[in-house]
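Inputs:
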Amino acid sequence: MRRLLGTAPLISLLFLSGCASAQSTLNAKGPAAARIASLSWLMTILFVVVSIAMWALLAVAFAKRRGSLSEHAPIDIGGGQAWIAIGGLALPLFVLTVIFILGLRLLAAFPIHGMHGGMRAGTRPEMEADAIKPEILIIGHQWWWEIQYLDGNPDRQFTTANEIHIPTHRPVNIELESGDVMHSFWVPGLHGKVDLIPGHPNFIRIEASGPGNFKGQCAEFCGAQHALMRLLVVAQGEDDYDTWLASQRAPGAVPTSSEAIRGEQIFLSGPCSMCHQVRGTLAGGHVAPDLTHFGSRQYLAANSFPNNDAYLEAWVTHAQSLKPGAQMPDLAQFDGEQLRDLVAYLHQLR
Amino acid sequence: MRLNTWSLMTAATVLVLVGCRGFDKSAAPGSAFPSATNVGPIPGGLPEANESIDPYSKDPVALQEGRRLFGWYNCSGCHGDHGGGGMGPSLRDDTWIYGDRDDQIFDTLVHGRSNGMPAWGSKIPEDQMWKLVAYIKSMRTPLEPEPPVVPAEEQIPIADLGRSASLQTHLDPHSR
């Protein structure tokens, strides 16, 4: 028994490890996620307590002696109705009503649909569609995220893909649209899910209470590679965020090393420029992720693989093996030298 | 069945004959010319005598891909939506300036033509090229694919497009 108890801390570590991961609802790092997490914990603890009580009652019923078959008394049904009335009706009704009300209040606290101002339009003028000035526009595609940073001045607008940066301690309004089918924006550490519906813009307001990387995922089945359509939200302090914005607004870095110069020629004269864009060059394709600052991103292929030389070479030559069905074709026509040059060029686009 | 020498030899013969059929190269993707059937003085033989060399010619999934690629690579920019014609000739009519065989269409795409058709050989992977050829050949036949999903920009009624400028610019691909 002692040895069994001794293993309990280790086993509990297994369960707790889920709490601290970068993509966990219970690892809340924003006010919205904190409210969701507290309701989740309340429900979990409440339901576990109720379950333990039920299992205990079941165990008592099993263990209770009733006498032998020959002296078996008829079942007394007179005294059990209180159990059913209280335990089966009143108590569940109370518990579920409490949780329902808490859930409704949670929904009302984070209205997502700006067009009608949320659930209480008259009292929330700041949530009317005209009042919401989205900072970021996310257009979901199969199977990547197009992210446009908006600004009143078109000079300061830019497009990127799959990796969102936000400042900490400040709510950020994001408009969500879809270019093909329904997707869903879900960064568990920051907020609940909001769908990207074709033809119907939705709005979400996220806020991070501290710096960090928050992983998310598409939460509405959208096709063959729905599972590899991941998000990364990087929350930075205001200064870091402003530096990042300034660097993203700049056009693509001009290559200086001989490898990168050759790589740029391969990029522009080959199939890459048919679909991708690098601002500042002649590559102006709009159907695929913007690569102007691809070297500064942590992951590639919608945050599915680390953005290092090996994975980039694999992605360029055999994307269909990594992400079958993705719009990126297999480009096996480059030889080793050309591939290295191309990768050198792409990774110097910081 | 008793495993004697006679049945073993029969099985081996059958296997060898079946295996020989796998050496038929005329359907390999990317082969430059169709296997020419000699039917007289017409070079290359009569059109019906040439089998389709496009490996995707009747594959419905590949035809859907071809339809997507037609819009993806902006072929419709010159040839019009669904190839109806515009700056470039219509691909849906019966006039084929440079031939309507699979290899001729492939050649048009890869090398371009002198009256304004660019050469896409270095820009579009060969696999996708054959899917485009298959899609073009499938136009006006029962095999022509339907769109799998109504694109987002076709879901908004035309009358409503003026109501919200942001909707139009966000969802109209030609406005960027």
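Confidence is low (pLDDT under 50) at residues 22-32, 164-176 of chain B. Flag for discussion at group meeting.
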